[in-house]
Write a structure and sequence with these properties.
Helices cover about 5% and strands about 75% of the residues. By secondary structure, the protein is mainly β. The model has no long low-confidence stretch (mean pLDDT about 90).
Length: about 500
C-alpha cells in the first residue's frame, strides 16, 4: 500500500550557466555626400544597446545594435567631423532553451576604424557579452506521512535551509530629461556616452523597488572649434511588480540600455530620451522540514529515496582591484577631455582551493596638447584577482566591472587611476537524501511468549539510535527508556537492551 505524504513545493531558479562571450563585428561604411572627405581618424567610440534576449530550441541569443561614432579631421576645413554608424549584432549560445530565463549585459571593449579611401572606412568593434541562463524548477519535497499513527510510522525529519534564487524578472522603462550646457546654443554634439547603474534596491511584499542614475557625458564642439565636455547624472526610481509576495531577500538589479536619443532642445541644452531594461534577482534563505527516513513498527516498509542539493551562502569579503598606471604620450597633455575604461572577458582558473579571475582593462583617453590639438591614446592593462574559496564552494560572478576612472596630466604622459569591483556570490553545496515515496507490505512477525522480550546488543560506532530502532522494529524512545539514555547519543562499548514490540 502506498503511503500518502504531506508535501511542500519549492519554486526557484537553477543557474545553468554564466558565461562571457567575445565577438567581433566589422562593417564598411561610406561617408555621406554631405560630409567632407576623411584625412585622419581621431577617435572611435561605440555604445552597445541590448534590445532583445531570446531562448530558442537548443540555445539562446542576445541581439541589439552598437551605435558607433567616428571622429575625423577633414581634408578641407577646420574642426572635427563625425560619422555615425549603427552595427547590428547577435550573440548566440549553444546552451539553454525556450523555457530559460536569460539575463545579461553587453558592452563594447574597444572600437577602431581604418581609412580605405577618403570616402570609405572599415569599422571594427570588439564586443563582450556576459550571460546568465536560469532554468525555472519546481522541487516537490516530502515533509511527513499523513496519519502516521494509523500505520505506526516512525519518522526521521530534519529542518533544512537552502539559499535559492526565488525571483528572476525584468522591467522595461523609459524617461526623458533636459540637459543644460554652458555653450552658446550653436554647439555641435560630436558624441555621447551613457552608463546606467542601480544604486539601491529592496523587496517589499510583491514589489521590488530600485533606484539609480544614468551617467551621461557629451562631447561638444563650439563654433570656434573648441572642444568641451558636459557630464550629467539623470536619476531614476522604479517599482517592479513581482509574481509573488514574500519576505525581503538579497536583491540585485542590473540596468541595461535599450536605446538612447540626444537632440538639441530649446536654448542652451539637449533633450535626452532613454529606453532601459531592469533585470532583477532576489535570493532568499528558504526553510523547510525534510523527511529523511521512515519505517513502520508493525509492517514491512519499502522506502524510495532521492537526493537534492542544499545551498548555503558563504561570506566573501568584498573584492576590488586598484589600477594606477602611467600612459606615456608623445605630446605633453594640457587638458583631459574624456576618458573611459572597459573590461574584456573574465577567465576563471582554479588555483588550489581558490579561484583566480583574470581580464584586461582597455583605457581610452581624449586630451588636448599645449597647442590645443586633439589626441587619442589607448592602452591595455592586465587585471587579476584571487578569491579564497574552499574546495567544495562554488561561485557565481558577473566578472570584473570598472568603477570611476580618473585621468590627469603627469610628467611623461597621463596618470590613470581606476578601481574595479568583483561582485561574487559564493555558495556551498550540500547533498542530502530524502524520502520520495514509501510502500507498506506484510505485517512484521509478532513475538511469541517463548521469545525474549529484550535483545542484548553492542552497537557499532557507525550505528545510531535510529538505526537500531529501525532494525528491530521498535522505537527510539523505548530503547532510550530501557537503557536510561538521555538524547540520541549511544554509549560506546556498552551493551544495550533493545525491547521487542509484541
Amino acid at each position: 500500500m502506498e503511503l500518502e505524504f504531506d508535501r511542500e513545493v519549492l519554486h526557484c531558479y537553477q543557474v545553468l550557466s554564466t558565461k562571457t562571450i567575445n565577438q567581433e563585428e566589422t562593417m564598411e561604411s561610406i561617408v555621406p555626400d554631405a560630409c567632407p572627405d576623411i584625412q585622419e581618424i581621431m577617435g572611435v567610440y561605440g555604445q552597445a544597446f541590448l534590445e532583445q534576449k531570446q531562448g530558442e530550441e537548443g540555445g539562446a541569443t542576445l541581439s541589439g545594435t552598437v551605435h558607433t561614432t567616428v571622429l575625423y579631421r577633414p581634408e578641407e576645413g577646420q574642426g572635427l567631423k563625425k560619422l555615425t554608424v549603427k552595427l547590428p549584432f547577435t550573440i548566440r549560445l549553444d546552451e539553454g532553451g525556450r523555457q530559460c530565463v536569460i539575463q545579461g549585459r553587453v558592452w563594447v571593449k574597444c572600437a577602431s576604424a581604418n581609412i580605405l579611401n577618403p570616402r570609405k572606412i572599415l569599422l571594427r568593434v570588439e564586443l563582450a557579452g556576459c550571460v546568465m541562463l536560469l532554468q525555472p524548477v519546481k522541487q516537490v519535497l516530502c515533509q511527513g506521512v499523513l496519519e502516521p499513527e494509523r500505520w505506526n510510522i516512525e519518522e526521521k525529519k530534519t529542518e533544512c535551509e537552502s539559499y535559492q534564487l526565488c525571483v528572476a524578472q525584468e522591467k522595461p522603462f523609459s524617461f526623458s530629461e533636459q540637459i543644460r550646457t554652458n555653450g552658446t546654443g550653436e554647439e555641435e554634439l560630436l558624441w555621447w556616452k551613457a552608463k546606467p547603474q542601480c544604486s539601491e534596491c529592496k523587496r517589499i511584499g510583491n514589489k521590488l523597488i530600485f533606484k539609480g542614475n544614468v551617467e551621461v557625458e557629451l562631447l561638444l564642439q563650439q563654433n570656434e572649434g573648441e572642444l568641451t565636455t558636459h557630464q550629467e547624472n539623470l536619476p531614476f526610481s522604479q517599482v517592479m511588480e513581482l509574481a509573488e509576495a514574500g519576505d525581503s531577500g538579497d536583491c540585485q538589479v542590473m540596468v541595461e540600455l535599450k536605446s538612447m536619443d540626444c537632440v538639441q532642445g530649446d536654448g542652451h541644452g539637449w533633450e535626452v530620451s532613454l529606453e532601459l531594461v531592469a533585470q532583477g534577482q532576489v535570493w532568499q534563505l528558504q526553510s523547510f522540514a525534510l523527511l529523511q527516513d521512515l519505517y513502520s513498527t508493525t509492517h514491512e516498509t519499502k522506502v524510495q529515496m532521492e537526493h537534492c542539493s542544499l545551498l548555503q551562502r558563504m561570506e566573501q569579503p568584498e573584492q576590488t582591484i586598484s589600477l594606477r598606471e602611467l600612459v606615456e604620450t608623445e605630446e605633453m597633455p594640457r587638458t583631459v577631455l574624456e576618458q573611459w575604461v572597459t573590461v574584456g572577458e573574465t577567465t576563471r582558473r582554479q588555483d588550489g582551493d581558490g579561484l583566480k579571475l583574470e581580464s584586461k582593462a582597455y583605457v581610452t583617453v581624449l586630451y588636448l596638447d599645449e597647442a590645443g590639438t586633439l589626441h587619442v591614446v589607448e592602452k591595455t592593462f592586465p587585471l587579476s584577482c584571487q578569491l579564497e574559496l574552499g574546495a567544495d564552494v562554488s561561485h557565481l560572478t558577473w566578472g570584473i566591472w570598472p568603477g570611476e576612472v580618473y585621468v590627469s596630466p603627469a610628467v611623461g604622459g597621463l596618470e590613470v587611476r581606476c578601481t574595479f569591483e568583483v561582485p561574487c556570490l559564493c555558495l556551498k553545496e550540500q547533498d542530502i537524501a530524502w524520502v520520495s515515496g514509501a510502500t507498506l507490505g506484510e505485517e512484521r512477525q509478532k513475538k511469541t511468549g517463548r521469545q525474549p522480550s529484550m535483545v542484548l546488543r553492542l552497537a557499532s560506532p557507525e550505528e545510531s539510535l535510529w538505526d537500531l530502532a529501525k532494525t528491530y522494529g521498535t522505537t527510539m524512545q523505548q530503547i532510550a527508556a530501557a537503557n536510561q539514555l538521555e538524547g540520541e547519543q549511544l554509549p560506546l562499548g556498552s551493551m544495550l537492551l533493545i525491547p521487542a514490540i509484541r
